[in-house]
Every structure is written in C-alpha cells, then in structure tokens.
Specification:
heterodimer; A: alpha/beta; two-stranded antiparallel sheet; about 15% strand; B: mainly beta; OB fold (Dihydrolipoamide Acetyltransferase, E2P)
Chain lengths: ~475, ~200
C-alpha cells in the first residue's frame, strides 16, 4: 500500500483502560544445556508473582486467557510449543493462542493481550514469550533465521539474514552517514553503550567493557557492520500480566508495583525490501512536510521513501501510538525507551522512524549524549535514555521474549524498582554471574512514561508499547 | 543404495521416488563437568521438501532460458495500472487482479543499476554461493520495485551499471540461476554455466 484511506488511519481506541501490573523474566544466555524451555517460563512467571508479593498459584487464579509469543517452531523442533508451556504452567483448560511475528513476536504478544482486556473478553491475561535458539549450532541457526526471508527469492542467497538486512544498512551508511569515519565511530559507540549497560544487568548475556576501537577491530560480518555491531542469539523467557482496572487494583494491593497504563500499536511493511514502493512520509506530530522538502538535496540518494533506509512499519506503529496516547514529541514526552537494536545501524534508523530525530539526523541522538542514562558530555541525566537493559546487543535476543523483556525493563523504571531488580546480590549469584565492583544504579529518576519498540526482520512487523503512570497521562480519554 | 528424492506431477498429483529422508542415529549429550551425567540427546533430521512455485514457475523456468520475466498490472480500473513488478508478483498488490507476465530482459540489460549492496563474509548452513557474497539490489527504469540478487564479478558500488547473466547450463531452477556482472564484462569472463 502506498496511499492510506481515512479508515486505515483511524486512531486506535481501547474500549476500557488496560494496565500492566507485573512482569518477569528468566536469565538469558546463548544456551541452557541444563534447562528445558518450560523451566525458563516458570522462572519468569514466578518472578512476576514475586513482584506482586504473591505466590504463583495465587496469581494464576486471576488469569483468564494466555498469549504465547514464540517465533520459531523449527528452532525448538516442537510444533504447538505453546500447548507444552501452557500445560507445564498449569493453566489448562484456559484458552490460549500462539503469536508469531518474527523479531516483533514479544511486542505482538502484548498487542494481542492488551486487546483481549480492552475488549472486555478477559479481565486478566498472561503474555509470555520465549525462544529456544540453542538446539542447533550457529550456522544452522543462521539458516533457520534465514527462513524468515522469502524462501524462493532471498533464502538461497547465502541463507544469511544479515545479508538481506545489511543492504539497507549500506544504503543508510552511504546516503545519511556519508561514509564518514565519525559516523562509523558513532555506530561503534552504540555497541559500547549497550554492552556496557549490560554489565549492570544480571539477566544479560553479553556484558562487555569495551571501547570504540574494540568494536572497529571486531571481525567484519557485512561491511561496515562488524561482529560487535550485531545483536546476540539467545535463549530465555519473559512475561507480563495485563489487566483491567479493578483487577489491577486487587493484584497490586500488597505490591510496590503501581498499575501502569499500557498501549500497544502495530505497523507492517513488505517481507522483502525488494517489494517496497515509493510513497510520501507519514508525518509524526513533531514533523512537518516542509522539513523534508529539500531532503534529496541534503542527502543525495535519499529521496526515495521509505526506500531501503526507513522502516515504514516502525513509522506507522509510532504514528498510531503517538496519536492514541497524545504524545507530541517523544523526546519531551517520554522518560526512557528500549529500542530493537538488532544492529547498531538499525538502532539509528529507528530513532528517525519513531521521531526522536528527523529522518537523516538519527546519529545526533547518540552524539548529543541524549541517549545515555548520564550524558557523558554534561554529566547530567540523558534527555531520553535508551536501552539501559543492554538491548539486543548487550542483554539478549531470545526472539519471542525480546519485546516483553523490553517492557519489563521500562516498567521497572516506572515502578522505581530498577535497582532492586538488577542490583540484588542474590540474583547475580543465582545466575552464576559476577556483579561488577563498579555496578551502577541506572534507575531513571521520576520516570512516568516509556516506550519499547519490537521489530521483525527487515521491518515486516513492528510494535510500539507505551507505558504510562496513570497519574501522568497526556490524553484523558486515551 | 539410497537415491535422492525426485518428484514429477501427473494428473495434478505429486509422484515421488527415491528417499525423502535419511536416517542418522541419535547420540547422548553428557555433562563433562558433572560425572558425564545425561543432559539430552541429538536429534538428526535430513529431509527433502516438495515445494510448488505456483504462479511464479514461469519466472524460474525463464531464467534457465536466459530471460528475466516481470509482471505488470493491466487492470484498467486499478489506480496503479501500468506498474511493473520485479520481483515478479502474481497479483497486483492494489487491485489483486492477476498481473500480465512480461519479458523485461532488454530493460534489465539497458537500465539495471545497483541501488544498494552488501559484501557479506558469512553465510548460513546450506549456502552454495562463494564467499564473500556480494548482495546487490537492482533498480530498473520503469519498474516500481528493486530486485535483490548477487554480483558474480567485480566489486559492487551504488549506481554501478550491471547486466544480467543466466545459468543456462546445469540450471538449478532457483533464484541462483540469475546473477549480474558489471556492464562491459566479456562472455569468456563469466562463471561456469552462465551466459548473457
């Protein structure tokens, strides 16, 4: 589609307010030779119950339907894996359904869960996501991931998803990055930041204290992208409990968790970048058509939209989400975000798609220091900290769980429980990980509104999950 | 003696012969750090799928004959009538009427240029292309979309003029039968089995 009808641009509206009351996650790692997937899911649900100061059995009594995000049956070699997990969680005979939208599976699972509550079908639902990516070695894993590309037109070309993705990165690198060494260093800085924040996250698989030079010296995967520019391949589970207002009040009665309003929207674009057609940029509330009039002049080669440099799916998820919740300017209206940093360069592309920066200027979000917990240039809090979990590069990408992990992370900030969940010595020991001597509390002080972007493949599915403290909404009827 | 699985169609039914799976025994996975206790097992699996190209079969057949086929919407009621699609789309994405199959080999020879590219040092299992793989995305005059393929000779660059080559000898009947070389490349420089 290259033109939208009025009906297609309808701003989504929920039939009643929907709340996130708790969330939980397992340890994330490249492999768990000693644990079945269900054990990881039980860990996540137990943690979600703990956050409410409840026993899992008590929390389960409230759950009415279940939404399970699990990207790849062929990775886990188990069809109907959702039924296995559902049974092992002891939730039969409740209705449940599997959700599969590639890398956006976690976000899409929350999207479905939110709608179940908003419609009145259920007062309380479980959204649980996981991925088992250790049942095959990495080469075979790359083959399985490449099955998410078109199997006749793209798959045989190397069976390597990085290649299908990185052609877009190359275009961005040349047109908007102008092949500048300074831009290459900015990309490397993102990897340093995300591996660095992962050091303070006991759940994270990829903590590293590295420098820009380390990233620039890591092996080339697909020039200009190097091994340390890429996300992890992970195993793990994450979950969230989504409720209506009366249930949210009951469930949080004895907890530090304040029920948070949750809104999830979704966008999509072609599975094959090859099928993209030119169109006008759908504008976010903080943009004007005027600012893109001379776009092709400022960035020669960048005049096609979305071309191979923009993620229209992300743009549309943000388009719906901002209008739904009253966000005018994400940098001003949000306090903390988690983005789908599959690669350092796609992190930059997403800054533009969701309006943190105008198209073509994404790099300035990093270079200004706005994306940090503490701005390295000023020593003051970053304007809009991103990926304090470590993101997909530093924390994990257990695909079906990723969007839910991001939501757990931003919720911890809004609950003012980040330090408690990430700093507890017991958790570090339980995960057999060493808490660093310079562990730092990354709690974003006073956070009231947050966003997580969950993204599939080359942008085929993207969701935007927004959490808000109900006392700090931007739009009363949202 | 085992034989690769082969398939043909008779009376619109698949007729198969040969082996479509190969047996390999499973083996235990044990913990070397913990008294070699059992942790799991390997599950070998080697299977051949039977896949239909459906309405795209004409495209893949034509590659082996040195032709690049595309499709065009000719529905007079469609707002985007006249749009040409490469990759080949069976139906118009707007009106959903069946597209007309057209031969765009000459358009490709005269106007193909690299929109973007990627030199990829890695591959997944089952890859048969030589590494590094030079992915190229190709734009054509008058075509609404941008085809992904691979460059067989030289180093890719944006805006570079390229021409298609086809694996007419020993075709695989997959997208790998189509590749590209810089404009001006001589026939005797082409990879084995390929010609213009």
């Amino acid at each position: 589609m290259i033109k939208f009808s009025e009906q297609q641009l309808q701003v989504p509206k929920l039939m009643r307010p929907v709340y996130l009351v708790t969330a939980g996650q397992s340890k994330f790692d490249r492999a768990f030779p000693d644990k079945r997937t269900e054990e990881l899911c039980v860990d996540a649900l137990t943690m979600a119950a703990d956050m409410l100061s409840m026993e899992p059995a008590e929390l389960k009594k409230y759950i009415h339907t279940c939404y399970y995000g699990h990207f790849a049956d062929h990775f886990g070699d188990q069809l109907l894996g959702e039924a296995v997990i559902h049974d092992r969680l002891g939730l039969d005979p409740l209705g449940n359904i599997g959700v599969k939208t590639g890398g956006a599976t976690g976000g899409s699972t929350l999207w479905e869960a939110m709608k179940a509550v908003a419609s009145g079908y259920s007062d309380c639902v479980l959204a649980m996501g996981w991925e088992r990516m250790d049942e095959v070695p990495t080469d075979e894993g790359n083959f399985l991931i490449s099955c998410a590309a078109d199997k006749d037109w793209e798959g045989p070309l190397g069976h390597i998803y990085t290649g299908y993705y990185a052609v877009m990165a190359q275009k961005y690198w040349q047109v908007f990055g102008k092949e500048e060494e300074s831009f290459r260093r900015t990309l490397a800085e993102i990897s340093v930041k995300h591996h660095g924040y992962a050091r303070f996250n006991p759940f994270a698989q990829g903590p590293l204290k590295i420098t820009v030079e380390d990233v620039l010296k890591s092996p080339v995967v697909a020039y200009p992208l190097r091994a340390l520019d890429a996300c992890l391949m992970s195993v793990g589970a994450a979950c969230a409990i989504i409720c209506d207002e009366p249930t949210a009040i009951k469930l949080t009665k004895n907890s530090k968790n304040k029920p948070l309003r949750i809104y999830v929207t979704a966008g999509s674009h072609t599975l094959r970048p090859a099928d993209r057609r030119d169109m006008e940029i759908p504008l976010l509330p903080n943009e004007t058509a005027e600012q893109y009039k001379d776009f092709g002049k400022r960035f020669p080669g960048g005049d096609r939209y979305p071309g191979f440099t923009g993620f229209l799916g992300a743009r549309m998820a943000a388009w719906y989400a901002y209008r739904m919740t009253g966000i005018k300017d994400p940098t001003e209206d949000l306090d903390v975000i988690e983005l789908h940093d599959a690669f350092t360069i796609s992190d930059v592309q997403t800054y533009e798609d969701i309006g943190i920066r105008p198209y073509g200027e994404g790099r300035t979000y990093v270079e200004s220091g706005d994306c940090y917990h503490t701005n390295p240039h000023t020593g003051k809090p970053g304007k809009l900290p991103s990926n304090l979990s470590g993101g997909l590069i530093g924390c994990m990408h257990a695909v079906g769980a990723t969007g839910i992990m991001q939501t757990f992370e931003i919720a911890c900030h809004l609950w003012d429980r980040w330090a408690e969940m990430h700093g507890d010595e017991k958790r570090w020991k339980e995960f057999n990980r060493k808490k660093p001597a310079d562990w730092t509390d990354l709690q974003v002080k006073g956070a009231k509104r947050a966003l997580a972007i969950s993204h599939a493949g080359v942008g085929s599915h993207v969701t935007a999950t927004i959490l808000m403290d109900p006392d700090h909404l931007l739009k009363k009827d949202a | 003696m085992s034989m690769f699985g082969q398939v043909f169609v008779k009376n619109n039914q698949y007729k198969i012969k040969g082996d479509f799976h190969h047996m390999t025994p499973n083996t235990p996975i044990r913990d070397a750090d913990n008294g070699w206790k059992l942790l799991g097992v390997t599950n070998p699996r080697d299977m051949t799928y039977i896949h239909s190209y459906g309405g795209e079969a004409a495209f893949f057949e034509a590659l082996s004959q040195g032709k690049l086929m595309a499709t065009r919407c000719d529905n007079p009621k469609c707002e985007y009538k006249g749009s040409v699609y490469q990759p080949f789309r069976i139906h118009c994405p707007d009106c959903l009427k069946k597209n007309t199959v057209i031969d765009m080999t000459d358009i490709a020879k005269k106007s193909a240029k690299v929109h973007t590219f990627m030199v990829c040092e890695r591959s997944g299992a089952f890859n048969i292309l030589e590494k590094p793989i030079k992915f190229i995305n190709i734009e054509f005059d008058g075509v609404a979309t941008i085809l992904m393929s691979y460059l067989s000779i030289g180093e890719p660059a944006m805006g570079m003029r390229v021409v298609p080559i086809f694996k007419k000898q020993g075709p695989t009947y997959t997208i790998l039968d189509l590749s590209w070389v810089p404009a001006g490349t001589k026939e005797n420089q082409l990879p084995e089995g390929f010609s213009f």
